[in-house]
């Protein structure tokens, strides 16, 4: 296929495309392709399935789709082990189909955002295969972090850095004669060797990858593990205390910002500038904000709010902290209830511990799904009322619960690298139910790559769109109101004091959002009681707001 597309007119640049600041108030829907919809009946979701379901996303009311990696990959880590950035995984379709999807979505007013994974590639990537074949000291190995090892015979690992997936971050190679060879660094799995961002080839390659996809009409990229790619070339051990800002050997190093400035220059070079979205996990607010300066990323994921328990004080503090972090650089906040790595809200909010942390994930944690569903409905309206960008992970709009899969069905490396203690992330990646009374519920015609529960018939799109009280109908109403209401498109927010168990605020001139997290009905003050009800996550009880409910009002 001819990959020279410099002269191809990009659909995102077409006349009539929406405003350049669309990303400041967008609703972005996350598509995990493998589990969205199966168009060819092989049990795996694909681009044909997504294309067929674009009208559903249009009716839902989203502004953009964010795709998890759709590239060729051995799928050692759900596609985040990329073998080729310029093709589509054959299970998902082809580059031609991807181009058609981008154009068809845009015709419906939906932009496309794709994943870039700069920290590492697949061990099947041609660069790494050439590095293994070339041997120690070769130029090919300089694109990665190879090390002879410590100790008399190199038998000791170079550092004791801990993997994001638990365990060691170094794997030893085997020489052609069968003897132990050099070690290579991988902050994630051994199948994901880390790139050396001090090497000019690495920077040049990723800049070319950005242009490749921007030229095909992609409106932006989401940058996976954006604070990790650069390493201290000395490869020191982790300090015993908290390292000074910018000095951690492999997290949030100052050199990262030059990389993202070069990416921003590329993104801004298009007639309709593309956007950069960072996955940035940092506790330091000032360091976090640096990634959002006007010459770097446009937005970054807000994981703090997503991790909070169902507690009014905790949620309010998180909202205040998030807005304060973004204010100095003028970037919009982002609001996320879940994603492809996190326990689904319906399950999480029904547990005694309703917050989220990877290290606390275990099998067999009980949940009250009725309570969790009620809270998830309230949380959906709460985040939809906040200023900034809202992300919706596929299936949350249906109220899908987390699935505790049988061990033999689990594929996630987090489970295996934990010694089987962590159930992993596959429970939130179970394929979507679209229609019908039994699996695969319209997902496709050939089963599904992860088993769907037998009791999911009432969660199907077909069932929920006929039920006025369903989660789907609530999401559609909320997103339609968010798009139509001028107050919700501003960046203003003023707090209202309605009690310790309430998160309440005013947006713009008239819109008020009240989320009640207490245990008894809340009597509204006279001014709010006299206001017009716009939307509620649960019916009012004789004019009072029930527990675990969000109410939208117009004064």
Which key features would you list for this structure?
single chain; 8-stranded parallel beta sheet; about 550 residues; alpha/beta; 5-stranded antiparallel beta sheet; disordered N terminus; 16 strands; globular
Describe, in short, the structure shown:
With 555 residues, the chain is α/β, with parallel strands linked by helices. The protein has helices spanning 47-52, 54-60, 95-107, 126-134, 200-214, 256-268, 285-290, 303-306, 312-326, 345-348, 369-384, 413-417, 461-464, 471-484, 526-529, and strands spanning 27-31, 64-67, 111-116, 146-147, 170-174, 180-185, 220-223, 275-278, 299-300, 334-336, 389-393, 494-496, 502-507, 511-516, 532-536, 549-554. α3 links the parallel β2 and β3 (111-116).
The share of residues in extended strands comes to 5-15%
Stretches with pLDDT under 50, minimum 5 residues: 1-18
What's the number of extended β-strand segments? 16
Radius of gyration: 24 Å
Number of helices: 15
Would you give an account of this structure?
It is built from 15 helices and 16 strands. It has 555 residues and is α/β, with parallel strands linked by helices. The strands form 3 sheets. The protein has an 8-stranded parallel sheet. Strands 12-13-14-16-15 form a 5-stranded antiparallel sheet. A 3-stranded antiparallel sheet has the order 4-6-5, with no helix packed on it. The protein is globular. Mean pLDDT is 94; it is low at 1-18.
Give me the secondary-structure topology.
Layout: E1 27-31, H1 47-52, H2 54-60, E2 64-67, H3 95-107, E3 111-116, H4 126-134, E4 146-147, E5 170-174, E6 180-185, H5 200-214, E7 220-223, H6 256-268, E8 275-278, H7 285-290, E9 299-300, H8 303-306, H9 312-326, E10 334-336, H10 345-348, H11 369-384, E11 389-393, H12 413-417, H13 461-464, H14 471-484, E12 494-496, E13 502-507, E14 511-516, H15 526-529, E15 532-536, E16 549-554
Parallel strand pairs: 1-2, 1-11, 2-3, 3-7, 7-8, 8-9, 10-11
Antiparallel strand pairs: 4-6, 5-6, 12-13, 13-14, 14-16, 15-16
């Amino acid at each position: 296929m001819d990959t020279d597309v410099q002269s191809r007119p990009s659909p995102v640049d077409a006349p009539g495309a929406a405003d350049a600041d669309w990303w400041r108030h967008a609703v972005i829907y996350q598509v995990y392709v493998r589990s969205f919809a199966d168009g060819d009946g092989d049990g795996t979701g694909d681009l044909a399935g997504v294309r067929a379901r674009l009208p559903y996303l249009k009716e839902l009311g989203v502004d953009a789709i964010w795709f998890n990696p759709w590239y060729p990959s051995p799928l050692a880590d759900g596609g985040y082990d990329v073998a080729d950035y310029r093709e589509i995984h054959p299970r998902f379709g082809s580059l031609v189909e991807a181009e058609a999807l981008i154009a068809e979505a845009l015709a419906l007013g939906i932009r496309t955002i794709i994943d870039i994974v700069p920290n590492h590639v697949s061990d099947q990537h041609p660069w790494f295969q050439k590095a293994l074949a070339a041997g120690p000291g070769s130029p090919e190995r300089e694109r990665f972090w190879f090390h002879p090892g410590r100790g008399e015979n190199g038998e000791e690992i170079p550092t004791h850095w801990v993997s994001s997936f638990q365990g060691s971050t170094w794997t030893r190679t085997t020489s052609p004669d069968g003897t132990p060879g050099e070690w290579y660094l991988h902050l994630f799995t051994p199948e994901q060797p880390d790139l050396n961002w001090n090497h000019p080839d690495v920077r040049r390659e990723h800049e070319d990858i950005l242009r490749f996809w921007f030229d095909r009409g992609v409106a932006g990229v989401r940058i996976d593990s954006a604070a990790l790619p650069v390493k201290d070339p000395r490869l020191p051990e982790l300090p015993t205390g908290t390292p000074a800002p910018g000095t951690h050997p492999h997290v949030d190093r100052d050199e990262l910002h030059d990389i993202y400035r070069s990416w921003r220059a590329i993104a801004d070079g298009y007639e309709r500038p593309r956007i950069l979205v960072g996955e940035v996990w940092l506790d330091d607010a000032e360091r976090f904000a640096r990634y959002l300066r006007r010459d770097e990323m446009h937005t970054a994921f807000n994981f703090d709010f997503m991790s909070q328990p169902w507690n009014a004080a905790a949620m309010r503090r998180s909202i205040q902290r998030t807005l304060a972090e973004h204010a100095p650089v003028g970037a919009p906040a982002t609001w996320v209830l879940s994603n492809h790595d996190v326990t689904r809200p319906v399950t999480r909010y029904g547990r005694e511990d309703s917050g989220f942390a990877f290290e606390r994930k275990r099998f067999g944690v009980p949940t009250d799904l009725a309570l969790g569903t009620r809270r998830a409905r309230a949380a959906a309206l709460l985040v939809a009322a906040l200023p900034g960008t809202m992300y919706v992970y596929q299936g949350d709009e249906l109220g899908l619960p987390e699935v505790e899969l049988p061990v033999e069905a689990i594929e996630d490396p987090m489970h295996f690298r934990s010694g089987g203690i962590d159930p992993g992330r596959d429970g939130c990646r179970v394929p979507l139910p679209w229609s019908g009374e039994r699996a695969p519920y319209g997902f496709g015609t050939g089963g599904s790559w992860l088993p769907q529960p037998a009791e999911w018939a009432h969660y199907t799109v077909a069932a929920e769109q006929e039920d006025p009280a369903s989660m789907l109908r609530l999401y559609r109403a909320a997103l339609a109101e968010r798009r139509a209401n001028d107050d919700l498109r501003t960046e203003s927010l003023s707090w209202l004091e309605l009690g310790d168990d309430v998160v309440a605020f005013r947006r713009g001139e008239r819109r008020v959002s009240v989320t009640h997290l207490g245990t008894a009905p809340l009597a509204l003050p006279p001014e709010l009681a006299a206001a017009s009800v716009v939307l509620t996550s649960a019916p009012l009880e004789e004019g009072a707001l029930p527990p675990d409910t969000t109410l939208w009002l117009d004064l």
